[in-house]
Amino acid sequence: MNAVREPAKRRALAVAIFGFSCGLLLSSPAAPPEKKDIVSVERTPRLAARLQPLGLDQLFEWEGRVYILVGPRDIWKLDRNRIPYLLESHKFPALNSRPSLLQGGINGDYHSYLELETDLQALERSYPQMARLFTIGITLENRRIYALKISDNVALDEEEAEVLFLGCHHAREWISVEVPFLLAKYLLENYASDAGVRRAVNESEVWIAPLVNPDGLEYSIRFYRYWRKNRRLNADGSYGVDLNRNYGYGWAYDNGGSSPEPASEVYRGSAAFSEPETRAVRDLFEQREFQALVTYHSYSQVILYPWGYTTTPTDKEGLHRSLAAAMSTLMAAVNGRVYGFGPSAASSYLTNGDMTDWAFGVSGIPAYTIELPPVDQLGGGFFNAERDIDPIFRENLPAALFLIDWSISNFGASPLGLREARADLLRGRGKVPGRHLR
Ligand SMILES: [Zn+2]
Q1: How much is the average pLDDT of 148-156?
Q2: Is 371 labeled as catalytic in the residue annotation?
Q3: How far apart are CA 424 and CA 433, in angstroms?
């Protein structure tokens, strides 16, 4: 589809779909949440090796133990593999809480889907020359996945560097919506007064999709705070595909970096790009010519780059590392918080089918996962205080501006055949690298 190259036509279509989807939204009943527990397992190399293939949702490590989010089937797996665990749910009173919708939800200053929609539309209305809102996909529950394009002459597709910022592949990572949204707001509100912002907006096209997984976010707000995946009803009756395991490069490479089991928190889906959310990002990516991207997650306060599916370095390790180091330095200067950085698989754990592996694999551009604060569970885990939203945004701002500036400089230095070269690379999209090659 040519959604992004034909804004007028696409916007008319989006309005039509929205009129239709509101009715569906009101009438579709939400599925009951699965009962979840948190258990801990002693952190030893022997147990870690036995845990890895089970595809469980490992939340964090604390005082020598790995904390894992489990359902009844996961407990059964632990029992069957004779892995000793302690039940820790009592330490997490919010685990299975179901706040009343009449109380206005539990998300406070954080955006819900409708609040974000309202705010994105308001930005477009306030800055019609610089901001244009696109619907890049429709979710299983008929919500829209939005991308805001920010540039001077926003109605035109100019020959300028393009940079992509994404948020909230994972539902419970609420802070990852706020940082890209606030970046959009900042660029627009400071265009008139800040020469640096003006140059960035004039000489680039910034695309910001703060909420890749709106169905999951709504479920996390209304029913179950720890929800991670989208809301796909799987063949076995379980819910959800891990969107950051559903991209088409190295998809299903092994069962350690993602799980073939639908009930797993890292379930990769029935096929690469089986989900409307990942297809929306893929289609946007293929219709644009991005020079760099950041996809925000939480938590652990670290800047990650490919590969996730293997510990073998990419051929752009040096570039990835030097840009990450520069971003980390800029970030630390704001609030003193130090973001570590490194290749994803070697720095944290194996993942396959993730967004940055795919984007880098098909295009070769710098592609970063920024895991926002806190650094660990003791600092709050997935629960960032409302008062931390602004400081976390402020420290990420110079890194985002740096990457935009780098993209502008890099675009100017690129050979004229850039478009053709990228088209060649993209023709190989979706190709799963063979194990014998790497
Ligand atoms: Zn995440």
Answers
A1: 97
A2: yes
A3: 17
